[in-house]
TrEMBL record:
Upper lineage: Eukaryota, Metazoa, Ecdysozoa, Arthropoda, Hexapoda
Keyword annotations of the record: FAD, Flavoprotein, Oxidoreductase
Binding sites annotated in the UniProt record for FAD: 184, 304-309
UniProt-annotated location(s): Peroxisome matrix
Entry annotated with the keyword Ligase: no
Entry-linked PANTHER family: D-AMINO ACID OXIDASE (PTHR11530), D-ASPARTATE OXIDASE (PTHR11530:SF11)
Keyword Metal-binding annotated: no
GO molecular function: D-amino-acid oxidase activity; FAD binding
Coiled-coil blocks: none
Protein name (record): D-aspartate oxidase
Species in which this protein is naturally found: Papilio machaon (Old World swallowtail butterfly)
Residues that coordinate or bind D-dopa: 224, 279, 305
Length: 338
């Protein structure tokens, strides 16, 4: 029996494990992780489909992985019951600039650059002078609900989980596995090790504001407001090389004051939670195969702020790489490790 280990139980780790187990039902698939939902970084995220903090990841890959994820979320939204919202997003700039049309614009609903009439309207609504921007329709997820869905679907396919903190890619717990899929996020910096990985600290505020039905992102101030079907996420920070997980009072004030400037009605919102986590920054997403000591490793990390934008498409690519790698696993390798 082919044995596959997945390291990491965030949205990328769960997706890779699920896709492998559903395609190769007779494989032994095990997730190793120190934390599982609802305690992963992804559980605290804003849950917005929106390419964000991806470094220099190619437009080709962003479009491929993002489009597959967008379609997957559309199917779940259309089915209903998965706490996924389909809402407009306005990405706005205070300084005049040319808003370049990305390749992924063709895969989303209603993409367009905003004209001056629309910008004037938004400026009056939000008491800020916006000079450029774009809009499209996107998906907002309750991240813990999605992660729970993926986890339960994986377990229903007889997938295994082990709660453990691994010391390296050659950890003794991985010795019996033929393929290791590395979805460790920020942890890849030490585990691989890969010094191109760095934390991007994000602090947010979660409130109840049920009257809001669109997302707004102020690119120049760094503020955003992302409502879903249960709460509203106010943000935020993107502090590179900052390892702090504790809350920062100055960040709290920055987020709340900035978001209230955009939407004064937020003064009536009920506070639910302040939260901080570390996004896995990298100059580009790493999704590739590596061979070390006769073992196959498939790396899938460095998604920045786009884990919930790219996860389903990245999972498809991991399964493709696994299929290409299976021919390198000799029958003797399998029997010797059973």
């Amino acid at each position: 029996m082919v044995k596959i280990a997945i390291i990491g139980a965030g949205v990328n780790g769960l997706t890779c494990a699920l896709k492998i187990k559903e395609k190769y039902s007779d494989f032994d698939v095990t997730i190793f992780s120190e934390e599982f939902t609802p305690n992963t970084t992804g559980d605290g995220s804003g849950g917005l489909w929106y390419p964000y903090l991806c470094g220099s990841t190619s437009q080709e890959n962003l479009t491929k992985w993002g489009s597959e994820t967008y379609r997957f979320l559309h199917d779940l939204w259309y089915t209903g019951g998965y706490h996924i919202s389909l809402i407009p997003i306005y990405e706005l700039y205070r300084d005049k600039r040319e808003v370049l049309r990305p390749r992924w614009a063709d895969l989303v609903f209603g993409y367009r650059e905003l004209d001056m009439r629309q910008l004037d309207h938004l400026s009056r609504m939000h008491s800020i002078n916006y000079a450029a921007g774009r809009t499209f329709t996107t998906f907002v997820i309750q991240a813990p609900k999605l992660l729970d869905y993926l986890y339960k679907r994986y377990k229903a396919a007889n997938g295994k989980v082990v709660k453990a903190k691994l010391s390296s890619l050659s950890d003794p717990l991985l010795m019996a596995y033929h393929v290791v899929v590395n979805c460790t996020g920020v942890g890849a910096r030490q585990l691989v090790p890969d010094d191109r990985v760095f934390p991007i600290r994000g602090q947010i505020v979660k409130v109840k504001a049920p009257w809001l039905n669109y997302t707004i992102v102020d690119e120049d101030s760094g503020h955003y407001v992302i409502p879903n079907d249960a709460l509203c996420v106010l943000g935020g920070t993107h502090q590179e090389h900052d390892y702090r997980r504790e809350l920062d009072d100055e960040n709290k004030d920055f987020i709340v004051k900035g978001c209230k400037q955009m939407i004064p009605g937020l003064k009536y919102a009920e506070l639910i939670q302040h939260w901080a986590g570390l996004r896995p920054g990298r100059d580009e997403v790493r999704l590739e195969t590596e061979e070390r000591g006769g073992k196959v490793y498939i790396h899938n990390y460095g998604h920045g702020g786009s884990g919930l934008t790219l996860f389903w498409g990245c999972g498809d690519s991991v399964v493709e790489l696994l299929g290409e790698s299976l021919s390198s696993i000799k029958p003797s390798d399998i029997t010797s490790k059973l």
